[in-house]
Amino acid sequence: MSLEFRHIAHAYGEVRALEDISFTAPAGEITCLLGASGCGKSTLLGLAAGLLRVQQGEVTLGDEVLADAQRSPPPEARPVGLVFQDGALFPHMTLAANVAFGLPKARRGEADSWLAKVGLAGMGARYPHELSGGQQQRAALARAMAPEPRVLLMDEPFASVDIVLRRKLRRECRILLREAGATVVLVTHDPAEALDIADRIAVMEGGRIIQFGTPQELHHAPATASVGAIFSGAQIISGTRGAEGLDTPFGLWPLESLIGALPDAPAFDLLVQADGLVPVADGRGCSVRDVHPMGPRDRVLLQGADGAAITVETALPVDPDKTYSVLPDPNSVRAFARS
Ligand SMILES: Nc1ncnc2c1ncn2[C@@H]1O[C@H](COP(=O)(O)OP(=O)(O)OP(=O)(O)O)[C@@H](O)[C@H]1O
After folding, report:
1. Between 20 and 30 A from 6 (CA), which of 45, 158, 162, 330?
2. pTM summary value
3. Which residue out of 5, 8, 15 has the highest number of ligand 1 atoms within 8 Å of its CB and is therefore the one to mutate?
4. Sign of the Cα pseudo-torsion (26, 28, 30, 33, in order)
5. What residue ranges of the chain have pLDDT lower than 70?
6. Ligand 1 pocket, 14 CB below 6 A?
């Protein structure tokens, strides 16, 4: 059952947190809300969960209105499971009791099998303080999934887990969620996390969605340079229209380096990939600040005369005592008009 947000706007007094948000989290898929702190992710989740009242617009589940300015059922009356950053297990209850808490009496015996699904087989008799942070978060996931809610809302669910375990846990979590067929909306500020787990991503900035799409769609046609920059190795540098191409702090770039045509504007945000750039030792003034060997390639940080920096990943030898310019590969740079 898909969860749809229609023309949602929200303010906390004078602070406008969300402006005309519309998107659909498709049934059985994982949709990530991705954006920097304060962009409105948790507010959006809170409106669907019933932690906040809808002020403007509506949230629908399938054909039914879940909440609008007139209707705001409490969280427990919504067919929605919630998982928060800290798991928030009941500390005085065993894991099995935690998981059984949301189940009808006849189904309470299922708690142990839900714990087994998240890799906590045989741990039902333990208390939350007897578990690691990652195990607590797994238990919280089991508790949220056990009642088989049609929708699962997750706010930074892996944030309190250490980085090594986080990746493992979110990949396992993705498989479990897909198998359960739940419609999931997951909040994160970490682009790598969104790309790792999401079927679709809503990229948010300043209370708005600037692009909604699959990771492939965002990669192939980013709406802004900042959307393109969520991918590893991507970076944004400044450029202006020159007589024979683009003037950048790292040299003159020919128009052939562009993907598509140059927008009609005097100044640009240029989206470039670190492994699509070639360092050229031509004494043009970019100094070498760092050369970091990373296996097959080196990661090189070059600094232009104006202080701007660019990262280049290259298999070519780079001499820290020389100065360079940087040349992009043909068809590798996306130019966005600078507002
Ligand atoms: N209770 C509140 N009272 C006043 N302003 C609030 C309140 N809650 C959130 N805000 C403001 O609303 C905006 C959106 O906040 P929200 O928590 O939804 O963002 P977020 O993207 O989830 O941020 P984070 O990643 O830091 O949790 C921010 O400007 C925030 O300061």
Report:
1. 158
2. 0.90
3. 15
4. positive
5. 86-87
6. no
